[in-house]
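Continuing the batch. This is chain 6 of the set; chains 1 through 5 are on the previous pages. Same settings as before, nothing changed between runs. Recording input and output for traceability.
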Amino acid sequence: MTAAAPAIAIRGLVKDYRGLRPLRVRELTVAPGELVTVSGLDATEASVLVDLITGATLPDSGEVAVGGVSTASLSSQDDWLGFLDRFGIVNPRVVLLDHLSVAQNLAVPLTLSVDPLAPDVRARVESMASEVDLRPGLLDAPVASVDAVDRLRVRLGRALALEPRVILVEHPTLNLDFSQAGAVADALAGVVRPDMALLVLTGDPAVSNLAARALTWEARTGGLQAVRGWRRRLGH
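Output for chain 6:
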């Protein structure tokens, strides 16, 4: 990634995904160290956009670039797999292994040997857990026994494990109670780093309001508008 390159740069994107209308994004730029939220995309649209940003699929027109590298330039499977190393992804499709503990699930990106965890891996896992506000007492509990917010924290910790340049988060509060949204917002805000961009696709005002730059997407035109002042405070 060059010093001057945005972490994410999208221009003139159009993708027909067999929905009501093609997915359009007129322009979106996210800088390293920036946390940006985008509301207005449903779960399917958010998933399609994440696939486009990660190069899993290509736009019909327009350009997607990450760290100055266009997804259209990835000419082989090896190129794409190397490109994927730039990302951490948080979504409900990230599988947690219910028969393993919280600590073992956090260790999955780091090692194939999770039973028992080597001391150095355990130390790294404890550091990751602290970063995403997972209580130490939960580490040895089965991940199936923890609540939905802590399961999201596990997914977030795993996304951070390999020190990505970009974290992509899809609707983190989709299946949570209203009362849990604040805890999710705090966990996301707590992982922002100067060299890493965080893009959160959400419909939850509690999550949108955590960002210095909160945007609303307009499906027909693909335009993105800043959510301002009283609208943010009232959650509209």
